[in-house]
Please model this.
Amino acid sequence: MATSLRRSSRILAVSMAAKLVASATKPIRRSTHITSPSADTCARSEDLEDVIDAYAEDYAPKKAKSPRKANTAKEPKVKKSKVVVYNLDEFPARGSSPWKIGPHVSAAGGVENAVLNAASIGATAFALFVKSQRKWTSSPLTAESIATFKSRMLEFGYDAKHVLPHGNYLVNLGNPDDEKREKSYECFLDDLKRLLKIPILLSSCSPGSTVGQVTPEVSLSLIAQCLNRAHKETKNIITVIESMAGAGNVLGSKFSELAKIIQEVEDKARVGVCLDTCHMFVAGYDIRTREGWENTMEEFEREIGIKYLRGMHLNDSKAALGSHKDRHENIGAGCLGLNTFLYILNDSRTKNLPLIMETPAHDVGKSNGRTGEGYEVWRIEIAVLKRLASLSETPDEIQKLDDWADEVRDAIQSKGGVVEATNEAAAKESRQPKKSKMNAAAAAK
Ligand SMILES: [Zn+2]
Model:
């Protein structure tokens, strides 16, 4: 599996590079490497790691061989400018909606490539890893990567507040073992210091786990202590803790647990929450109906406070309500259905936040390498989500949701992905009763 992923990913990376390089204003130096976006970051992260490693090893910028290598050892090195000017007209229009949407894209080959990957599919927000998410140590960001990331953010018109990087998966700030927690803390702090260099001021991470050795209260306090320490050792970064599915000893599936961490954080301006729709649903928050969404947000306001909402992860769920199984599905193709995302994207509380998809890309690692369409499913999902953000909730308009969900399913299937029949049935079933409720809500307006 990993071998075939690597092989096809390499081909895909070359193909995408060729496609985007061809779209840029000439002349172009091949100093940057466009890489394919990552797959879902939570559900298939091990496969994704293989893909990312393969890119990083094989497509990191390499120094060109000098034809006079043998005689040039003592010549002074002249650092050539690697500025590439892109023709922005060749990239999809992004629109000006206040709801900022995009996937967790790959930063393979350099963090600067995340900006291109996002722009290539019309994303208005994006997430990335600023180092390998499954290694304790990574080489530092290069000065060139930092400079190019900054210039591309300006060039492509992205606002840093719509970028929500994700922290390292190995980190557990709630680990009661002092030595292991310290190792986690150092890795966590390193992520924050990298972000300050680009500079991005939001950093999302999983809260942590008790590892079955202490009570949740003890672990939650340890997490808060780590955040306090990190806030003192860095400036301005806002640490954003993610709501979790709640499998095993993992903390943060209940709003009350996230609230407990925030209560113990000294600098309240430096902490926030990222709500993951898949995690919320499998943790027991039924957000499939407007009533359910409103009740959940009221509970969030009561327990935590809406001012702490700093971002969201928009994922559908393969798993059922309350199952605590963290299995992401494409938008509208899972147990939530498109209605959930309609409520979120018609809610002023989610305006101007990074709304990040961590959904399966399907054709990453599966493409035959000739099409260069490793972004297709995400491109469709972004388009559908943007439409939801501008949809008025009238009965006529809401009729469109079934067609749009089919559009996402067709994209998945066209890339060899499978939409599980049970999910489809569950999603359709969940849409039916909601239509009548929404009609009533629309009529009452
Ligand atoms: Zn998430």
User: Anything to note?
Assistant: Residues 2-61+90-444 form a domain with the TIM Barrel fold (CATH 3.20.20.150). The first strand starts at residue 100 and ends at 103. The chain has one domain: 2-61+90-444. The CA atoms of residues 255 and 299 lie 8 Å apart.
